[in-house]
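Technical annex, item 7. During the second reporting period the consortium partners agreed on a shared format for inverse folding records so that results from different sites could be compared directly. Each record opens with the tokenized structure and is followed by the designed sequence. A conforming record, contributed by the partner at site C, is shown below for reference.
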């Protein structure tokens, strides 16, 4: 687990993302989770701080009803995100 300012920033972004998701503000929620994801050092998926981000992505995309299309857009827009998400989501689902 990360410590210090980076850890706190990621926690705050995930909480903010969850708040937006609860309010139905899905674009804002995804923006928070993406910012949290980008704050993680490489290899991102290896950190415990990645788990709430994966949960947030999944929650928002499911709530929107377009999980497959949303993931496709998100993964194609961020180089390197697809393999990391695949590994992280697999570990999260196991």
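Designed sequence (site C submission):
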């Amino acid at each position: 687990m990360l410590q210090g300012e980076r850890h706190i920033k990621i926690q705050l972004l995930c909480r903010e993302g969850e708040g937006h998701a609860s309010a139905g503000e899905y674009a804002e929620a995804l923006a928070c989770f993406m910012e949290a994801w980008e704050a993680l050092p490489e290899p991102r998926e290896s950190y415990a701080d990645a788990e709430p981000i994966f949960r947030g992505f999944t929650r928002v995309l499911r709530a929107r009803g377009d999980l497959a299309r949303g993931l496709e857009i998100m993964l194609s827009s961020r180089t390197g995100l697809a393999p990391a998400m695949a590994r992280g989501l697999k570990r999260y689902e196991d």
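Residues 4-93 form one domain. The radius of gyration is 12 Å. All partners now use this format for quarterly exchanges.
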